[in-house]
Amino acid sequence: MSKDAHIVFTPSGRRGDFPVGTPVLSAARSLGVDIDSVCGGRGICGRCQIQVGEGDFQKHKIVSSCNNMTAFSSVEERYASKKGMKEGRRLSCQALIEGDLLIDVPAESQVHKQVVRKRADVREIEIDPPIRLHYVVVEEPDMHKPSGDLERLQAGLEAQWGLKNLHCDLRTLQTLQPILRKGQWQVTVAVENEKTIIAVWPGFKEKAYGIAVDLGSTTIAAHLCDLQTGEVTASSGIMNPQIRFGEDLMSRVSYVMMNPGGEKEMTAVVRESLDILIGVVAEEGKIERSDILSMTFVGNPVMHHLLLGIDPVELGGAPFALTLNSSIHLYASELDLNISRDGRVYILPCIAGHVGADTAGVILSEGPHFQDEITLICDVGTNAEIVLGNKHRLLACSSPTGPAFEGAQISSGQRAAPGAIERIRIDPVTLEPRYRVIGCDLWSDEEGFAEQTKDFGVTGICGSGIIEAIGEMFLAGIIQTDGIIDGSLAEKSPRVRSAGKTFDYVISESEPVITVTQTDVRAIQLAKAALYAGVKLLMEKLGVETVDRIQLAGAFGSHIDVKYAMVIGLIPDCDLARVQSAGNAAGTGARIALLNKKSRKEIEDVVHRVEKIETAVEPKFQEHFVNAMGMPHTTDEFVHLAGVVTLPPKKTGKSGGDGEDGGGRRRRRRAS
Amino acid sequence: MSKDAHIVFTPSGRRGDFPVGTPVLSAARSLGVDIDSVCGGRGICGRCQIQVGEGDFQKHKIVSSCNNMTAFSSVEERYASKKGMKEGRRLSCQALIEGDLLIDVPAESQVHKQVVRKRADVREIEIDPPIRLHYVVVEEPDMHKPSGDLERLQAGLEAQWGLKNLHCDLRTLQTLQPILRKGQWQVTVAVENEKTIIAVWPGFKEKAYGIAVDLGSTTIAAHLCDLQTGEVTASSGIMNPQIRFGEDLMSRVSYVMMNPGGEKEMTAVVRESLDILIGVVAEEGKIERSDILSMTFVGNPVMHHLLLGIDPVELGGAPFALTLNSSIHLYASELDLNISRDGRVYILPCIAGHVGADTAGVILSEGPHFQDEITLICDVGTNAEIVLGNKHRLLACSSPTGPAFEGAQISSGQRAAPGAIERIRIDPVTLEPRYRVIGCDLWSDEEGFAEQTKDFGVTGICGSGIIEAIGEMFLAGIIQTDGIIDGSLAEKSPRVRSAGKTFDYVISESEPVITVTQTDVRAIQLAKAALYAGVKLLMEKLGVETVDRIQLAGAFGSHIDVKYAMVIGLIPDCDLARVQSAGNAAGTGARIALLNKKSRKEIEDVVHRVEKIETAVEPKFQEHFVNAMGMPHTTDEFVHLAGVVTLPPKKTGKSGGDGEDGGGRRRRRRAS
Fold this sequence. Notes:
Two copies of one chain form a homodimer. Chain A is of the alpha/beta class and 672 residues long.
């Protein structure tokens, strides 16, 4: 009898002694080393590749060589010739131990690999999908031992994969017999949560997919993901067709109130669009709809209810009662979505009547519940969702900011498209502006700007542009602390000009004339004050005076320059280096829930703990709102901000001189 | 502080001491006494009625009086005036303990009441339905403590009924908000298996229903049951519309083989008919479809697969592989059945490719797995399902008897309708017959027979009539042991007459002439031999020479005179007193599964243990079949039968005299 070989696996560091002849995969499994496999050790899937370390590894006290492993087998030859294999790689299910080995399991061979995210400040997504593929060989039927095809499939899954007592969905059952025979009793099965067989394919099936959906009031975004690698293989968006029933949520709820049965129409159209979107990403990803096994959804409460076919009318008025705030797990067919016959849908939990599954997605993506620091997350849209707290306490509310941030109700507002002003700087001495438009990299005062923009011109200001315009107008002294455009400057510059009782600031004089009016400034003031008041309410409830970091989520939050967001007082004072865009955090949350089963339990637990604040019934909300109308704020200090920009002297009143502010105190802010 | 009162509950005998002022229902619950309640102690449902024993009960060492209980309350007055209450009854949720009491819980107030069945030899059905109703008061939504309506309903169910972590189905969720508001936050909820909310009604809902379905190849029978009392409140039947695709199972499977996609048509038509049948029983029971929460199904494997939308083609040829043999639990909507929106379907497990959920139903109804005695159960139809065994071992098989027992392939055969001969006696001396027909209580030789049958005449022989005709012909010596009609008797009686190479027996000479031909006898011989051979195979496998009792199930089994079944050798010899009709045992099994949740687990476990015998691959089946062609059998003794009827001397061969029988032995049977 030969001596056992000593095997060390990296990066896990797990080690053990094994008899010569043991397959490397078996050794790894017995030590609990994380190595993937779909084919169950048959040399088909190539998921279990490993690499042998060569040399004397002092650290591990081992001398390792590929000579201590059986030679490249015919099964490996076949796999390598079909699919290709990197130099030095082996299939751990085929290679047998013949002596001491240091074996490296590369990241792509691990089941629980991590998806690296672009931002360094957020946690990585660990791949651990609820749905996994298993290749299985099924015993053929035998008249002498009658049993159902399902029962023999179950027996195979138990013997070959240790999966016990699996249930099988009806629509999969309906196709089971022909698939088993077509695959000649070798099939690949998709199993959800180690409990349910939700799909079966003849032979070996390599890939399974899921779609994460951010169901917004205006836009629906879908991301097709490879359930094994976590890779986003296709993304697409579509307008929410419910827009024809009302631009914002409340007008859609009103539509239902005025048109009984209207909720059914809205449910039907959004499901139809989702089904189209599924087709689009499937085509882009070059896969079949039947390869899509799972979908996850985030969305605000009204979108959430309408998707589910629930009348949202109760969300339209106090006490804003949700039908449910738990998560939901359904068949995709229950929502008329055509993916795999028994494909599943998971919808993240809502938090409160105005704080939906989109906010749950943001929390899951940003993970404030893991932090020591106090994190403020604002998902800015027609409605702003605000989350504040850390691992000890989390609070959430929503605040009705209105559509100003999305460019609506702004005189020269337009959607983000070529020709829209997105960046602007105003000379504080001359009050002359220069700007950049979407579709051109040059500033308006640079040579070639006119030439490069001649195809689309300069047509308006987009949402992020209006924030900068008002921020720069404030920094240049054109807008006073109280938001009034200082008419006295009309004498100094033709850019400030009278418009009856108030004044406008002219950014571009050529047609179309682009101006910022007093009404525009007021609309932005109201919107930013609503957001800030919500934030203040949560800070007060949490008992903090400052926040440690701020994440701006959502399409709008991703595009604005956080500095200007702070200059106009959209967000509270904070170290600017700690203020970041979180991108489409809600959508990322949906993707995490798609790829990691534990994250579902995690977010269900977290939202249960979130303290919900209803701004509409908080008496102090109004006071916070009024105080937040000032630039950047009527009463609050912006110490960090004052350290990076030169804030103008505080001035209010039509006179344009310094006046009393709402809080009755005077301050000066200077750059440090 | 007053002394505790001593309370004894009957019939349970549970006893305990309780403080004065305790509601009787609370006392009962704390002792685990089985008392029903839907309203949760609000005096609405009247389910918790009890009766106080008056007097000195030595046996229980207690002096009890209704004076030891609070007086009839206004809540009880209201209930009694609305719904009526028997003299002496009290609502145990309203009556408070004031002293020692002997309290009787009548059967109808118990949750686990038993349904008494007509036959004394079978176990009673214990009512313990998977679905129960719970009246619950739900907290109203509060903006200051945002939570979903579902979560508050769940909280109410936990606080008021101890039901934790209930899930709620989508279609119930869709109606939850308007129902809670219509009911003014008081609703009745249907909960399945203490796990899932499957229906909600505003206010108090008293009754919930289920339907047990026996899905036969020819007939579909549905029984509407009150889920609380177990009472069958309506029954109806409908022809299986699949008949137009083929009379028997194999011709339907052939239809699918010849017409790809034909299985979809057959699935659609049977589901449509089931949906019509649901409407019929709902109307007969004067209830809404939405009051039906559950359906259970039994059926043979082909019916089972077609109901589920599974192609039955694999059942049409060896190795006769079922898609699955486990039970199935589904939404009724998955089978296109319109009952309550989230109503459920439970389909009993199949056993083998030819032994279906109908046989599982028969086992559940007859309970051979509880017996010490060896029970033989035969469900006779176009295919016979046979179960043999006791609590130690159970074996099952099916045997292709063909349609002869159903009157098909019989020259004068007809379905059971007025004018069909169902009883017949033949004088062994004169060979003259007398008979009775369906629709008339007189025998044909009694006065008034012609008058009473003149509207429909004498038109043919039904399935049970043909068994008696052949049995009587054998007892009268007209048919020999080998099944040959003895032509030598033509000399003795004009009733026996030549038909070329063989002879007929004439039962009725007026038009239409009703005869039993040699071909008819052969058809019955083949059918009964197939059944008997299956039985013998199981007896051999079980290692028994005799059976202790026989149950004949199915429509045919219920109508035949068991004596004649034994005379022709359809079933093996047995004490005739222990041979009984089990009626529609399969349908009863479906009813048990509807009303008792434990029975589902029970039958799932039992079918798993059943040893399946495939007659088609058993080499000895053919031998048993050949030997079983004789009357009553070529080789087997019929000792018990010989004790009650005078069996004719054994004779074979065209000569009509005694000849060699198949087994080569001679015997004489005499009445004892």
